[in-house]
Design a protein that fits this description.
Elements: H1 2-12, E1 19-21, E2 36-40, H2 43-49, H3 55-75, E3 79-81, E4 89-94, H4 96-107, E5 110-112, E6 121-122, H5 131-137, E7 145-146, H6 155-162, E8 174-180, E9 201-203, H7 220-227, E10 234-238, H8 240-243, E11 246-247, E12 250-251, H9 252-257, E13 262-263, E14 278-289, E15 308-309, H10 325-340
Parallel strand pairs: 1-5, 6-15, 7-14
Antiparallel strand pairs: 2-4, 3-4, 8-14, 9-10, 10-14, 11-12, 13-14
Bound molecules: flavin-adenine dinucleotide.
Length: 344
Amino acid sequence: MAGLCAAVRARELGAAPVVYEKGTRAGGSMLLSSCVVWRFREWDDFRAECPTGDERLQRVVWERLDDGIAWLESLGAPVVERETGNPRTVGKRFGPGGLTDTLVRGADDVHLREAAVEPQILATGGFQGNEGLVAEHVRPARPLRLRANQWSNGDGLRLAREQGAELSAGMGEFYGRNMPDADFSEADFVPAAQLYGRFARVYNERGEEFFEGDVSWSENDLVQATAKQPGAKAWYVLDDSALAQRVRDRRVVDIVALASTRVDPADLPFAAPAGARVAVRVSPGITHTIGGLRIDEHARVVGADGLYAAGADAGGISTGGYASGLAAALVFGRLAAESALDRL
Ligand SMILES: Cc1cc2nc3c(=O)[nH]c(=O)nc-3n(C[C@H](O)[C@H](O)[C@H](O)COP(=O)(O)OP(=O)(O)OC[C@H]3O[C@@H](n4cnc5c(N)ncnc54)[C@H](O)[C@@H]3O)c2cc1C
């Protein structure tokens, strides 16, 4: 998302950029995503939801996103929904295939299966695909399953660090979803996500209710806490009222029905609470890292002269919570091109 947006913007400004895409197809995780590009409706809400994020970077995303979305539409990207479905946020849902095609057409010169030798703008999508880097920074209790494209292995981070780049805050944080604790494929990334932890009683393998306080609306705090539990697992235990709740347009009972790891409460490794109807064993899928390279508000990598970064390679924006990764990729991708061409 960030790399293609940077290339399209650079071409609009008269340059002849080349996109080097290591994967076998364009679109990265964006192509696998729900493709809702959004921001918090209120600035104060953004700060409250992501309190340890870099305020200057957050301001840039918040102020420029509406322009960015209008720009995508002006390029011909297909809008599927004009609302996010969440009253606290504004934005649009695009068709990921159509958005990818539109950006590839605008970028014009996209080389697949090739990594750049001396890239100027880094947009490799974070380091979630690199088990070693995840173990070093995120420190999960066991390796996390990948819920993202398979090529984002921290290449941008490594390359910039070799040139003296500084790291952002939040290197231990990630965005993800609790998934059934069993194998899953790309087709399961969205439908199989067990996004109802806020209605469940949540236990670890020892039968401890490990999460204190209210689970956030994105449930990213619960997912990150699960990664630190023994075996990086949790049990969601549901009673009738939890099963009757809705998450977006789906009933909890229907999401649970898709989980191959659901069990009868009598089969839990600890005593089930009264009223329990079903339990689901979950563990996190990692979608993208939240920490990364430290950038300034012009997408310049701090400490590495002449390098720019955008998207999940640029860290510290949604630290402490969760905000749209596509929004940050769009805004800082465009800005990186403008900065690199000295057109701010
Ligand atoms: C299932 C799912 C649902 C999601 N839903 C949403 C949503 O609704 N809203 C939202 O805001 N976000 C969502 N996201 C997150 C969103 O997709 C990411 O935040 C966004 O794609 C990040 O943009 P990026 O450009 O940093 O990375 P990507 O879009 O992943 O692009 C990175 C690209 O870099 C390539 N690459 C890696 N290394 C190299 C290298 N050395 N050389 C060349 N190329 C390389 C990769 O192959 C990839 O194509 C979702 C993600 C997933 C997986």
